[in-house]
Design brief:
By secondary structure, the protein is an alpha+beta fold. Helices cover 56% and strands 12% of the residues.
């Protein structure tokens, strides 16, 4: 069982969109484990794929076919790379948004509210006084 040409083309398009080339991968084949009978025991159908620039790795043994496992491993690895890229982008957006919020001027009403709260606090503190034992004050 092999992968259809449409799926291969979609995978290639996705790789170019993410800026990943086939030379970035280190691919090794190992024997699978688990059910599968003689095919699993004799054929190295499990694919271990490493993306060298990021160090991400994937091991795929979902299918009995090596070709299908190669395709699935590439898809899984591209998913992880995409998550890594979008995570960085989202973190950068959040950081920039936080800086903008911190630099933004407060509205007149918000400033008045803060000042009112500060005045109330100062009045509370002003009412506190030393307690004397003789009762003259």
């Amino acid at each position: 069982m092999s992968v259809s040409p449409e799926k291969e083309k979609a995978l290639a398009d996705r790789m170019t969109r993410l800026g990943v080339s086939e030379s970035d991968f280190k691919e090794t084949f190992i024997r699978s484990s688990g059910p599968g009978g003689q095919n699993v025991n004799k054929v190295s159908s499990c694919v271990f794929l490493i993306h060298i620039p990021t160090g991400l790795s994937v091991k795929c043994q979902q299918e009995r076919s090596q070709a299908m496992n190669r395709h699935l491993a590439r898809r899984l690895l591209l998913d992880r790379i995409e998550r890594l890229h979008t995570g960085r982008v989202e973190a950068e957006k959040k950081r920039i948004e936080k800086i903008k919020r911190q630099k933004r001027r407060r509205s007149k009403r918000a400033q008045e509210k803060i000042l009112k709260a500060k005045h109330m606090q100062s009045e509370k503190k002003a009412h506190r006084g030393k307690v004397s034992m003789d009762g003259n004050e």
